[in-house]
Amino acid sequence: MGTTASEWLDRSHNWFDGAISVLMPRRCPICGTTLPDRQRAWCERCEAGMKVYDRPVCAECRRFLMPGESACQSGHDTPEPSILHALGAFDGAFGVMVHALKYDGYRDLARPLGILLAGLLYDGQIDVIVAVPTSTRKKRKRGFGHAEEIAAACAQEMGVRFIPDALRFTRSVADQTKLNAAQRKANLSGAFAVRNGIDLSGFRTLIVDDVLTTGTTMCEAVRAIKVAGAATVSGGIIALNLSMQNWGT
């Protein structure tokens, strides 16, 4: 009996996957161990040790919000956004994966991280998802916008609309990495705007980024989204930097 085309393709696909696994083994982005299953994004051991936040946090004081709270009750000014969903701490597995995604060639991490983020969000409370923009220079260097790919995967998992390139830079900005809190605020003040032709009027909007440190980037993005008429704006990030004391003036 002859081999059908579909059987031949299946065998070829299996052979190709096997060859790739030998020549270019997939490794866990967290611990570096070889993954026997190329469909896994990280190893089972690292997954078991992941500490995923089960509640929103305050972008200002990093306090977990209690069930039913729409804003932090700690007495400080209400931050932007008032509701922030984070997968976990920057000094753990999620910080390592953000670094791997942006700098180590693990572009395909964006999808599983976006899917995980979707699991934290409330069904029926978000209409549209946008992403904090990546500068043209960094996008050209990496070949993609990391926050946009996370946001797109999150939106697909939730079944809500994703608007690519919704936000744009209004001017050139310096790299935030080595700036303190005051410098970051000055650097990004008024630096974002919603692109012409995009109407967010009345939409409950989620804005996605990879990391929140001082909160300046997210705050400026929220400001731009609100100017465009969004009804509410919440934030979604992969890793939350808890060491705020390291970013003082």
Structure description:
The chain is an alpha/beta fold. The protein has a single domain (42-72, 79-247), classed as Rossmann fold, CATH 3.40.50. The chain has helices at residues 5-23, 44-49, 93-103, 110-118, 136-142, 146-158, 181-188, 216-227; strands spanning 84-89, 128-131, 161-162, 167-169, 192-194, 204-212, 232-240. The strands form two sheets. It has a five-stranded parallel β-sheet, sandwiched between helices. The radius of gyration is 20 Å and the shape is globular.
Give me a quick take on this structure.
With 249 residues, the chain is α/β, with parallel strands linked by helices. It is 34% helix and 14% strand.
Topology:
Elements: H1 5-23, H2 44-49, E1 84-89, H3 93-103, H4 110-118, E2 128-131, H5 136-142, H6 146-158, E3 161-162, E4 167-169, H7 181-188, E5 192-194, E6 204-212, H8 216-227, E7 232-240
Parallel strand pairs: 1-7, 2-3, 2-6, 6-7
Antiparallel strand pairs: 4-5
Output the radius of gyration.
20 Å
Strand residue content? 5-15%
Helical percentage = 25-40%
For the record, give the distance between the C-alpha atoms at the N and C termini, rounded to a whole number.
76 Å
- CATH overall fold name: Rossmann fold
Poorly predicted segments? 1-6, 12-22, 245-249
Please count the helical segments. 8
Number of domains: 1
Helix- and strand-based class? Answer: alpha/beta
Order of helices and strands: HHEHHEHHEEHEEHE
Can you name the CATH architecture?
A: 3-Layer(aba) Sandwich
Strand order across the biggest sheet? Answer: 1-7-6-2-3
Report the CATH C-level class. Answer: Alpha Beta
Shape: globular
